[in-house]
Amino acid sequence: MIKRLAPYVGQYKKQAILSPILLLGEVLMDTLIPFIIAKLIDQGIQAQNMSAIWKYGGLMVLCAFVSLFCGVMSSRLSAIATTGFAANVRAAIFHKIQTYSFANIDKFSTASLVTRTTTDVNNVQMAFMQILRVATRTPAMLIMSVVMCVIISPSLSTIFLVALIVLAALLPVMVTVSGRRFSQVFKRYDRINNTVEENIAGARVVKAFVREDFEARKYADATDDLRRQFIRAERITALNMPVMTLVINSCTIALSWFGAHHVVSRTLTTGQLTSMFSYVTQILMSMMMLSMIFVMMSMSAASARRIIEVLDEEPDITSPEEPVTEVVNGDIDFDNVSFRYSQEAADPVLSDVTLHIRSGETIGLIGGTGSGKSSLISLISRLYDVSEGEIRVGDVPVKDYDVEVLRNSVSVVLQKNVLFSGTILSNLRWGDPDATEEQCREACRLACADEFIDKLPDGYNSKVEQGGANFSGGQKQRLCIARALLKKPKVLILDDSTSAVDTATDARIRKAFREVIPETTKIIIAQRIASVQDADRIIVLDDGRISGFDSHENLMKTNKIYQEIYETQTQGGGDFDEPEAD
Question: Where do you find CATH 1.20.1560.10 in the chain?
């Protein structure tokens, strides 16, 4: 895992290298200070030698200042390196997600991807900080302190050997068990993020159905589940502090007992025993920090695995090595196409679909809920790949195109309209970043969006809140249609994108399409026949199969499903804003 994530240190390698080096300087100074204290006591205080007191006192002050400088600079450089590393990892995850197909995103879920980009990256960042600082300082301090103890008294140093054996036996068990349990903890984070995401996105529905208490209970259940999992994991890591305290106190008592005997027998000086106490504290604190590092690493290892899963996921849909870079026209062909969202699915969403749509045609697409309408049009722009058969656009298989070229030529206004925080103009320019304001106005005129934009105080510079929350459903639909038109596509697909506008406005939009973009192939998915009956031909989908594909007049004569839909929608008198027949 370290090898996989190490390249993301990137431009911060210098800081990542210098930080541990400076830290070693700090450790060296901290290790020398007890040794100097022993000299100060033995040669200065006990001998009442003021010259030695000034000499060793000055050395202690110098070591303290050098240690302070190295520690401050190491902390600063490690902070730069770790925050930069985290920023690079987040950018890499986000960039990777942009390459995902819908199938890839479905595999992880949106909530899980959010958790991996935030909580998991934070954990890995903290682990990197531990590696640069604690994981460098602790072993160095442990080794140097043990060396100094052996130099002072080899026999007393055996006390630390017993402590190391005890810890070496306990730490691997704690790390293994806590690591497994922390993996479960992060799955609970996914559940919490999913609950919050659903609640915020569906805030209006929650309030409309007065379900605030239900949502609060659901969130409380998720947080309580997370709490229980954390407690299970922390039960193991909580043993760390008591065990370390026991070891420290035992070593201190043993050192006091045996050290006193050595002083009495004059094999050890008072200053040396004092320095031994300092070193034993440094050694045992290093052991404690080492155990905490192992616990932290076990937790961050679970996060690192989740991050690597995202980075190593191969997009299902990629461009070929030598892609076609131009879509010549809007011809669309389906040859015996079948589609499943996953290989494990028992039944296909689409079965044996064969169609030929001529460039410039206006095609209606109608069918019941779950008949496969949205799935069908998603295949044209390669949001998903077919399971069987082949799709061609401009007489070229869609898999032969550069993905960006294909999607720029096949403009889709999806069923769920999405606007982004900014202004109306900035949202429209998603279709064409270089579009002038006049071109944006023309697109809005075609989509009948100019009717409400001109009434806004700031016009096209009006603010758009996140998700377009300050616009109605019909207004968002028209803005999304205008945005799609700015791409000047060869194929324009409206996936039930006029469902929230009245039929009169719907008719004006369709009329503008016929007059202004006659060469663009237009596919209109709709629930109401009034939106598609003027189309050149209409596809009738039934349970993933083509039931009919003809003009409105011919389908009324030959297709029973179409007849039933028409009769159901017209026998009630039509839509509210349609004029009554004479």
Answer: 2-312
